[in-house]
Amino acid sequence: MWSIDSKLPIQLAVIRIAGVSVAEHKKAFERLSDCASDYKRKYAGSAIGEIQGVQDARRLFRAIGIDPTKHRPASEALLNRALKDKELYSINTLVDVGNWCALDFLLPTCVYDADKIKGDVIMRKGAEGESYLGLNSRPVNVHNRYLLADESGAFGSPMRDSQRSAVTLDTKKTILLIYAPLDYNLEMLKEKAQLFARRTQDICGGSLEDIMLLKG
């Protein structure tokens, strides 16, 4: 069961897919690169804040107490690299799909290994002293920050994910997330969740178990 603390100004699309096959080929990365090229072709020379969709992630970050001018949403960071023609990086097919969707949707996305998440999951604010080990092997302090937690504790947030729930080539079940501000159109969020699921299945296979739309 997934839930959001009712006080949190956030929406969450949760997509569960079983039977995925994660690999190191570049099919999803090529889609990410094509998406980046499309943005550069369309918006070269434009101010990034004027690009349609950028303000959605910024509004989300402001609502959860993060200054997006100091901590850029990952979706905007990808867009910034695309507009400046900076190198993008391939991790594995499933993570690459997540990055492709984050750039395309201009909303924060996450991909998790579902087998590493135990019991019920809640999105809430972190308690004093609460932290987890990030993907960069550094502790992530989530005191008073928005986080995802299971019965073993915090494992992710809209800013950074943990090593504990990371996708690897051994991942067989995945949970995909899209974060959106509370006022984001629910039908649009649903359509993006369905597209995220289709792209994942096209690249990594698997069977869609369900899509949940949660609101704080």
Quickly describe the structure.
The protein is built from five helices and ten strands, in the order E-E-H-H-H-H-E-E-E-E-E-E-E-H-E.
Question: Could you explain how this protein is built, in words?
Answer:
The protein is an alpha+beta fold and 216 residues long. The protein has a single domain, classed as Phenylalanyl-trna Synthetase, Chain B, domain 3 (Phenylalanyl-tRNA Synthetase, Chain B, domain 3), CATH 3.50.40. 32% of the residues lie in helices and 25% in strands. The protein has helices at 27-43, 54-63, 74-83, 93-105, 186-204; strands at residues 2-4, 10-18, 109-113, 121-125, 131-133, 139-141, 146-150, 153-156, 173-181, 207-215. The strands form 3 sheets. A 4-stranded mixed beta sheet has the order 1-4-7-8, with no helix packed on it. A 4-stranded antiparallel beta sheet has the order 3-9-2-10. A two-stranded antiparallel sheet has the order 5-6. Helix 3 packs across helix 4. It is globular, with a radius of gyration of 16 Å.
What characteristics describe this protein?
four-stranded mixed sheet, 216 residues, alpha+beta, four-stranded antiparallel sheet, 5 helices, 10 strands, Phenylalanyl-tRNA Synthetase, Chain B, domain 3
Question: Low-confidence spans: pLDDT under 50, at least 5 residues?
Answer: none
Report, as a whole number of angstroms, the end-to-end distance. 15 Å
CATH architecture: 3-Layer(bba) Sandwich
And the CATH topology? Phenylalanyl-tRNA Synthetase, Chain B, domain 3
Mean pLDDT: 94
Shape: globular
> Structural class per helix/strand content?
alpha+beta
The tally of strands reads 10
| Largest sheet: number of strands, sense, barrel closure | 4 strands, mixed
Order of helices and strands: EEHHHHEEEEEEEHE
* % residues in beta strands: 25-35%
Radius of gyration: 16 Å
Question: How many domains comprise the coordinates?
Answer: 1
User: What fraction, in percent, of the residue positions are helical?
Assistant: 25-40%
Q: How are the strands of the biggest sheet laid out side by side?
A: 1-4-7-8
